[in-house]
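Researcher: Please generate the 3D structure of the following complex. Treat every line as part of one assembly.
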Amino acid sequence: MKTITVRYFAIFREHAGVDEETLSLDVTSAMDVFERTRARHGSSEPTGHCKVAINDEMAEWSSGVNDGDTVLLFPPVAGG
Amino acid sequence: MKTITVRYFAIFREHAGVDEETLSLDVTSAMDVFERTRARHGSSEPTGHCKVAINDEMAEWSSGVNDGDTVLLFPPVAGG
Amino acid sequence: MFEISENDIAIDALREQMKDPGAGGYCVFEGRVRNENEGRMVERLEYEVYEPLAVKEGERVLEEAQQRFPYLLAFCVHRSGLLEIGDCAVWVGVAAAHRDEAFQACRYIIDEIKVRLPVWKKEHYAGGDSGWVNCERCASVLRQSKDQNGKGS
Amino acid sequence: MFEISENDIAIDALREQMKDPGAGGYCVFEGRVRNENEGRMVERLEYEVYEPLAVKEGERVLEEAQQRFPYLLAFCVHRSGLLEIGDCAVWVGVAAAHRDEAFQACRYIIDEIKVRLPVWKKEHYAGGDSGWVNCERCASVLRQSKDQNGKGS
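Model: Done. Output below.
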């Protein structure tokens, strides 16, 4: 089990009802974190236009996560 | 013979030494006017990037000129 | 230079900074809040920005533009927070030797900013409801999922 | 709207006019006097404009842009007279529903303005001499012609 802090943004935050939470998860990749928290962030399409960052660096869904990492879950962006 | 007022612009005006002059010319087209005043405006390439207007309307080099017309001779432009 | 601003973008001050004696062309783009989007009347807009990564990615976009369309100066400022109709949401300015680089760099920057930065836009509609732009599909998936699973675990 | 101005272009006032609640994109281009052209140091610039036809042709360019890239508002102002390095020689502003029309209309307008209007630019160089831009070939033809014919008749 790894201790992972998950941060939610925009619609994900509204769905989760919290900005962030620290969870004990049996996960290997950023994708695993996304799937484990699906019920909270309310999306079933991680490979779509959603993005992920680990410890404030943009990451791939296949990127590995380590104990103590912060995983940021980004719904589809809309700048400008 | 037709009475034609010829107006010179930019480098053509500097070469002609006058803004405009009224001449009696045996001419049919704007091109004829350009060629008759070549020694004044100093250019031998009327079909190049030079332009012509007759009585404040853009014209073609082949456009006819009438007695009393004003022909404006424009060297290559450089806006902006 | 890329910045996130919580307040009105200081356009006059930005313009003052865009001066270079070698600049023949200067191109600006302003994205403004419009009163309509996809057929719905918009009353105001809210931008959520994750600033640490937005700034990092914004700076990266400016560097990429510099590589592709060498310019002399470029600035970009993106708003966060609540905006009214007509407010400037994003400002991009590029000064270059010639107009082609100025236009192309400016266009590159705004196009990339719109799709790459961690920025989210919530529209508040005339009817009183609101929606996250580009997230409606996610939301509908959620609603189905909640209907099936009760209150979402 | 197209205008020729003998004085500094009032950019702030122009910007104030470019407001429309339906505008999501606003693109501006400023052509500025730069300190160098084709390898020569430029000290100042002089624009000669034949205003009656320049205004007519400028208005036509704005209408063509409207047909091709429908916009909400567009203005263009071109300077005449003497300009210093850094001065704004031409200003084009376009407000449109979306950024693509704003960029494309703005680019169309400046590209056409540069080649179609009866406007001539004389550069004054660091050495004290000067030259009409795009007219050097004409001038050299003249010089040959004068050499052959004496003082040009």
